[in-house]
Amino acid sequence: AMAGRAELEAAVREQGVRKLKADKAPQHQISEELAKLLELKAQLGTNDGKPQFVLKTPKGTRDYNPKQMAIREKVFSTIINCFKRHGAETIDTPVFELKETLTGKYGEDSKLIYDLKDQGGELLSLRYGLTVPFARYLAMNKITNIKRYHIAKVYRRDNPAMTQGRYREFYQCDFDIAGQYDPMIPDAECLKIVHEILSELQLGEFLIKVNDRRVLDGMFEVCGVPADKFRTICSAVDKMDKMPWEDVKNEMVSEKGLAPETADKIGEYVQLNGRSELIDKLVQDAKLSQNKVAMEGLNDMKQLFVYLTLYGVEEKVLFDLSLARGLDYYTGVIYEVVLTQSQAATQTQQNEHSEQVSIGSVAAGGRYDGLVGMFDPKGRKVPCVGVSIGIERIFSIMEQRLEASDEKIRTTETQVLVATAQKNLLEERMKLVAELWKSGIKAEITYKKNPKLLNQLQYCEETGIPLVAIIGEQELKDGVVKLRVVSTREEVDVARENLIEEIEKRTCQS
């Protein structure tokens, strides 16, 4: 045992967490090394033979402190209010599904599905997203139309390195419209909703990229891609925002076995982007105009731009032929929303095609008309279109922004602290705070029999409580309460029966 111990101790010394910190390594790298160090130390145990317990969250997960939760709740309420404004209902589904429910729905990403240990009985997997459970729910309950949102945690067994904030457990925030409707009307509303949410959250400039699976498939067909390679070529095209065309072409040719001249033909199309004028140009295109599927997609795309103009959002929308979205189940329009910054702000990411440079996707979605049919025993189709808001990314942007500013963020909503300056008035404080609670006022007392007034006032300063209701012998005799405004220190005597009204009046605007 001693030899093993010496080896472990040497390994502990080699874990270069301090060096990484000194070199200002990225946070995720530091966290990873720290986790390894903690595990080594746990194996060592303490010298008195008691094993040491590792205090860490499981790999790929995190805790949220009250400050982070306050920001998070603000983001959620903005989003939910928008969904409700558009008449959506909400549902919930189990965190695990039957393994077979999830099998075969995610293409190349299936390896990230979290399978649970066989507990005897059903084989289960943790849900990977909220769309497949939604489709299962529709098929199971024979629902043909619904407009719903669902905000919940999903699970992905991302491995080995937890790169740039890829979590194994994170929130997804989905809005979907299921039902047989006229073309592009629900699709336009999904984009309108994203536009409203991003404008309201004030994350900065953003761009909504749209394309259509039928345009892509038609384009692959006229370029000579064999039908069985459509999906895998699609996921190669999907990487065009991350790497130059040459690398994408290389992947198509050397890894996926496409003829170089076919890849070149695809290249002529996927490097195009524009607005309505590009649609007109493609409708006239010698090859594409001969393709029925592509033409259906282009005509719908034209209609979509008309509706987006009516909704006043088209100036933020770009028709981009390189947008492919890796997921297998999309059948029509697809979109992705990226935050952009002007070229001036970012000299690091040179990009000759556009004056704006993307700094990451914050929402994505599209039409998936076949998914519900995959679950229905009779194969009945329910057309669906939806959008997923990248809540984690939005949240980390808001968090960074608040750290950069000196804005103090409140983690409680207490409106008033019931306080006393004299001894032996705990019972009176309790009576008064109970009165306030009964009227729906958010109120607190400090948990001491005879607290000092200064300490009570300091507590208000620290937590941002705006008002203090002070009672003493005299106030109780006169049937009043001294209401003190923490920020200005002004005090006013309020008749006890008017106290609720006065507090409400003073806190409703905050």
Automatic annotation (TrEMBL):
Pfam families reported for this sequence: HGTP_anticodon, tRNA-synt_His, WHEP-TRS
GO terms of molecular function: ATP binding; histidine-tRNA ligase activity; identical protein binding; RNA binding
Write down the PROSITE patterns for this protein, in alphabetical order. Answer: AA_TRNA_LIGASE_II, WHEP_TRS_2
User: Where L-histidine is bound, by residue?
Assistant: 156, 172, 176, 325, 329-330
Q: Which reaction does it catalyse?
A: tRNA(His) + L-histidine + ATP = L-histidyl-tRNA(His) + AMP + diphosphate + H(+)
Q: What class of enzyme is it?
A: ligase
Which superkingdom heads the taxonomic lineage of this protein's source? Answer: Eukaryota
The chain positions of domain WHEP-TRS read 2-58
Q: Give the matching InterPro entries.
A: aa-tRNA-synth_II, aa-tRNA-synth_II/BPL/LPL, Anticodon-bd, Anticodon-bd_dom_sf, His-tRNA-ligase, HisRS-like_core, HisRS/HisZ, HisRS_anticodon
Q: Identify the keywords attached in UniProt to this record, alphabetized.
A: Aminoacyl-tRNA synthetase, ATP-binding, Cytoplasm, Ligase, Nucleotide-binding, Protein biosynthesis
Where the record annotates domain Aminoacyl-transfer RNA synthetases class-II family profile, the positions are 60-398
A GO-annotated cellular component: mitochondrion
Family stated for the protein in its record: Belongs to the class-II aminoacyl-tRNA synthetase family.
State the name under which the record lists this protein: histidine--tRNA ligase
Provenance organism: Scyliorhinus torazame (Cloudy catshark)
